[in-house]
């Protein structure tokens, strides 16, 4: 595809009925109500953990506001072209495409909805993903055109939401959920990031952003709580150096947390909705909410 053409004409919404990625079994959106909660970090580590134990994995970085998956995954070579299409880059066993490959560095991008739509559409139609068990999509934070676009272009297996445990972030989780409700996407679970900090010297545990909010939110909404990830300087260092912690230090506490979440996610997805532990649909879940989620 050469380059993403954000200025291209918007496609007629709702007209794309053809499955653009027939070789991909499960498409999972990784979302967050707001920026900075660690969504991309979680997407990168989960992608690697899934690839290590659960199947073939692709990671699409659709976060136009901060496309930092290439840096976090240590991708040094941009994707190559083959027969007018793009071969995804590959790192740590994961196939990777990112908006970051096509944007000039250090540029603040202000994209309108149709441009986001067009770029994501190209990432499906013009990239040679091949056969994949999982394609994770790192969405821009919040609720916007990317989420809507995704649900129009491909059948999503569901969305996971990353949050920090404090009140203000949990409010955003609920907002994000109602957006997924509008486009009929099942919510696969909540991941609580930056849950607690364990002092490397004395071992004391500090709950910097409060305690257990993600779990309570999941409980109230009746959706799976997939797990909590501690705050750990090694996670940040892994992101900065292109060596996700599940690769850099696979037996560390945070790496084990990511691997446990990957296992739960794989189990959740392999249970088809309607059989046994079905994936609840958001509409029915939101009916259960009588009052806003609170930390108490
Ligand atoms: P988002 O995608 O939600 O904007 P990022 O994944 O880019 O957030 O994370 C923001 C920053 O926080 C990055 O520098 C990342 O390395 C760091 N970070 C994310 N999760 C953790 C964590 N659990 N412990 C320490 N640093 C983290």
Report on the architecture of this protein.
The chain has helices at 39-53, 69-72, 113-125, 145-153, 167-182, 213-221, 233-241, 245-248, 253-270, 282-288; strands at 24-32, 57-61, 80-82, 85-87, 89-91, 94-98, 132-138, 158-163, 187-198, 205-206, 225-231. The termini are far apart. Helix content is 35%, strand content 21%. The longest helix has 18 residues, at 253-270. β5 (89-91) and β6 form a beta hairpin. With 296 residues, it is α/β, with parallel strands linked by helices. α3 packs parallel to α4. The radius of gyration is 18 Å and the shape is globular. It has a single domain, classed as P-loop containing nucleotide triphosphate hydrolases (Rossmann fold, 3-Layer(aba) Sandwich). The strands form 2 sheets. Strands 1, 2, 5, 6, 7, 8, 9, 10 and 11 form a 9-stranded mixed sheet that branches. The chain is built from 10 helices and 11 strands. Bound molecules: adenosine-5'-diphosphate. Adenosine-5'-diphosphate is lined by residues 32, 35-41, 66, 68, 141, 193-194, 229, 231-232, 235-236, 239. The site of adenosine-5'-diphosphate has 19 residues, from α1, β9, β11 and α7.
């Amino acid at each position: 595809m050469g380059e993403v053409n954000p200025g291209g004409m918007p496609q007629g919404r709702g007209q794309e009925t053809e499955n653009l990625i027939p070789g991909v079994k499960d498409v999972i959106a990784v979302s967050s109500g707001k920026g900075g909660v660690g969504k991309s970090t979680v997407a990168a580590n989960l992608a690697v953990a899934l690839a290590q134990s659960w199947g073939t994995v692709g990671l699409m970085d659709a976060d136009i506001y901060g496309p930092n998956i290439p840096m976090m995954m240590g991708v040094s070579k941009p994707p190559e072209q083959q027969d007018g299409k793009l071969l995804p880059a590959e790192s740590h066993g994961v196939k990777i495409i990112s908006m970051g490959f096509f944007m000039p560095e250090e540029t603040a991008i202000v994209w309108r909805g149709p441009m986001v739509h067009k770029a994501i559409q190209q990432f499906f139609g013009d990239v040679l993903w091949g056969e994949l068990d999982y394609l994770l999509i790192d969405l821009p934070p919040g609720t916007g055109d990317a989420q809507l676009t995704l649900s129009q272009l491909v059948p999503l297996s569901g969305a996971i939401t990353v949050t920090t445990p404090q009140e203000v972030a949990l409010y955003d989780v609920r907002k994000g959920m109602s957006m997924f409700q509008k486009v009929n996407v099942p919510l696969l679970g909540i991941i609580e990031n930056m849950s607690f900090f364990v002092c490397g010297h004395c071992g004391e545990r500090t709950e910097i952003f409060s305690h257990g909010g993600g779990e309570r939110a999941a409980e109230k909404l009746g959706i799976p709580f997939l797990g909590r990830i501690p705050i750990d300087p090694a996670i940040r260092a892994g992101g900065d150096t292109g060596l996700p912690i599940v690769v850099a230090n696979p037996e560390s506490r945070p790496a084990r947390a990511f691997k446990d979440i990957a296992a739960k996610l794989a189990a959740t997805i392999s249970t088809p909705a309607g059989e046994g532990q079905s994936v609840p649909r958001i509409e029915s879940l939101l009916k259960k909410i009588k009052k806003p989620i609170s930390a108490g």
